[in-house]
Amino acid sequence: MEPxxxxxxxxxxxxxxxxxxxxxxxxxxxxxxxxxxxRYTRTLSxxxxxxxxxxxxxxxxxxxxxxxxxxxxxxxxxSDNLVVNIDTVIYYQVTDPxxxxxxxxxxxxxxxxxxxxxxxxxIGSMDLESTLTSREVINAGLRGxxxxxxxxxxxxxxxxxxxxxxxPTSIQDSMEKQMRADRDKRAAIxxxxxxxxxxxxxxxxxxxxxVLQAEGEAQAAVLKADGEAAAIRTVFEAIHEGDADQKLLxxxxxxxxxxxxxxxxxxxxxxxxxxxxxxxxxxxxxQGVTGGGATPAxxxxxxxxxxxxxxxxxxxxxxxxxxxxxxxxxxxTRDYPKIDE
Length: 341
Hints:
With about 350 residues, the chain is α+β, with helices and mostly antiparallel strands. It has helices at about 1-20, 95-100, 105-125, 130-135, 135-150, 170-240, 245-260, 275-290, and strands spanning about 25, 30-35, 40-45, 45-50, 55-65, 65-75, 85-95, 155-165, 320, 325. Helix 3 (about 105-125) crosses helix 5 (about 135-150) and helix 7 (about 245-260) crosses helix 8 (about 275-290). It is rod-shaped, with a radius of gyration of 63 Å.
């Protein structure tokens, strides 16, 4: 009984192992390559799959998701003989598991070497400045070459990125100095332009202020002249409408005489000859008022309205500096006729 029991146990174990090998569960976004006696048979997709145990074998399990592979820095020589270290990152995805398994031994290593050689070819035709400023051009060139080469491997390169471009230390110092000099230059130019604009604006403001002030003064002068003209016109019309006689004019002359003597610096002042005519009219007015209709007596002194002859060759009349009044020039005594009403 013991040998039979052992055989049964062995058969159960073999059947269990065969069952395990028959049922294959493939995760989502994965694929498996099945070989039968070392020859490719089929590709298992995601889910539950049945294979023939001990005959079919799983050669390779491949992840169908997009993969990101960073490559170490690679020294590359530019066209101006400068060595730069460039880090690259490849985004790829397996589209044909069979080609990725049988067309290339290691597609990761193949992509890395192809990236390095393509990068050296592209950078070798560019100088340092173009290399630093043309990342999009380099990425497009790398992607075009890699996508064409890896298509037959069942791999699609979705994106290629240059993670870092590191020029030599001496070049970095020179670039920093150049950038600093450019910034200082731009700052000086902007400062000069700002000062220039400020001066221009200040000059324009002063010009506009001067123009406005001149216009204001001109308008004020015009308005003042118009006002004075209107005042003179009003006075003139009032005088003509009021029909002022010689008495009123003589009284106005008398009110004007104190104004002529004002001021401490006045040492000499001249009375116009018209004042005599005014005084004559005013004297006649006073005599008419005091006579009352009777024949007045002859005055002992010349009346105030008597006109004092003025000799043009004798010069201006002397002025009493203490009393601020004009002293008439002494003339010979004359007899004046009596004024009858």
